[in-house]
């Protein structure tokens, strides 16, 4: 090391003592962002064999390759989960990690089934999609929802921190921010995707389509007597089945429900529920909500 830098080291070490380091000083590491990012890459290989590989995957070698990959990625993921569950008492085994990992491994076929419906929703919902392979290879939402669906399972099974690190890895790559706590049904499609935000306590039904810039966020934060934000609780909206939300719309609040078969137009700002079969748009600079069924019948006359 350059000797001219030595005078700065004592002040930096003092800073670690005063402010707190970014790592535990007893050699027990926090989960690693770099390791979690590589695990996400490897999980995508497990979900989509051949699509995230430099070389073709031959059918005859698929079983051995899958076994090798599963063993490697689960060992490294288990290490990161173990570090996360031990935060606060790194020397004491908790016994939580093995059941988390067992449930996670068992959930992978179910996640692939859901992703198959997402790919179908994209193919059916985007006239620019020429084939399903194009969607897997080039659509950012597939990467984002794949990682979120995996992270959601880890979140459900009790793994702290690592699921959020996974979805933030996907967020950084795709511009799509989906909290691992969000529950998302089948046939989900985000067209374009950049700028989408889906909050922790969102519940999204089946056959929901979002466009870029959509926010499903919190309306306000409840605080305790000392002014601190109270964590948890239902803060984000619910979106029922067969809903389409167009670009740059913002929907806020834990009590807000977008009824099934509704369409939310572009640039709409909502902080209250709308009933099923609603069309929500701005008309003459005013928010207007219509019954889509009655509107269609009137147009037919």
Structure in words:
- There is one protein chain.
- The protein is an alpha/beta fold and 301 residues long.
- It has two domains: 15-175, serine acetyltransferase, domain 1 (Orthogonal Bundle), CATH 1.10.3130; 182-301, 3 Solenoid (UDP N-Acetylglucosamine Acyltransferase, domain 1).
- The protein has eight helices and 15 strands.
- It has helices spanning 9-19, 33-47, 62-85, 97-125, 132-138, 140-157, 162-174, 292-300, and strands at 177-178, 183-184, 189-191, 197-198, 203-204, 209-211, 215-217, 238-239, 244-245, 250-252, 257-258, 263-264, 269-270, 278-283, 286-291.
- The protein has a six-stranded mixed sheet.
- Helix 2 packs antiparallel against helix 3, helix 3 packs across helix 4 (97-125) and helix 4 (97-125) runs antiparallel to helix 6 (140-157).
- The longest helix has 29 residues, at 97-125.
- The radius of gyration is 23 Å and the shape is globular.
- The protein starts with 8 loop residues before the first helix and ends with a helix.
- The model has no long low-confidence stretch (mean pLDDT 90).
């Amino acid at each position: 090391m350059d000797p001219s830098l030595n005078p700065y080291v004592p002040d930096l070490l003092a800073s670690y003592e005063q402010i707190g380091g970014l790592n535990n000083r007893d050699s027990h590491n926090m989960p690693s962002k770099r390791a979690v990012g590589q695990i996400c890459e490897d999980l995508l290989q497990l979900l989509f064999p051949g699509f995230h590989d430099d070389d073709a995957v031959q059918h005859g070698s698929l079983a051995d390759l899958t076994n090798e990959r599963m063993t490697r990625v689960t060992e490294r993921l288990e290490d990161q989960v173990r570090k996360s569950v031990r935060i606060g008492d790194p020397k004491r085994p908790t016994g939580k990690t093995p059941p988390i990992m067992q449930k996670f491994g068992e959930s992978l076929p179910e996640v692939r089934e859901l992703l198959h419906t997402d790919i179908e929703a994209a193919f059916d919902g985007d006239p620019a999609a020429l084939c399903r392979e194009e969607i897997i290879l080039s659509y950012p939402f597939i990467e984002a929802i794949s990682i979120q669906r995996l992270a959601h399972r880890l979140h459900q099974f009790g793994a702290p921190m690592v699921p959020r690190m996974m979805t933030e890895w996907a967020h950084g790559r795709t511009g799509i921010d989906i909290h691992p706590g969000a529950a998302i049904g089948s046939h989900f499609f985000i067209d374009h995707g950049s700028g989408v935000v889906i909050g922790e306590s969102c519940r999204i039904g089946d056959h929901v389509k979002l466009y870029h810039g959509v926010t499903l966020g919190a309306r306000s934060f409840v605080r305790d007597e000392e002014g601190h934000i109270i964590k948890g609780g239902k803060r984000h909206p619910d979106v029922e089945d067969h809903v389409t939300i167009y670009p740059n719309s913002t929907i806020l609040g834990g009590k807000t429900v977008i009824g099934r078969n509704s369409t939310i137009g572009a640039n709409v700002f909502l902080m209250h529920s709308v009933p099923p079969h609603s069309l929500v748009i701005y008309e003459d600079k005013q928010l207007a909500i219509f019954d889509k069924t009655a509107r269609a019948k009137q147009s037919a006359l």
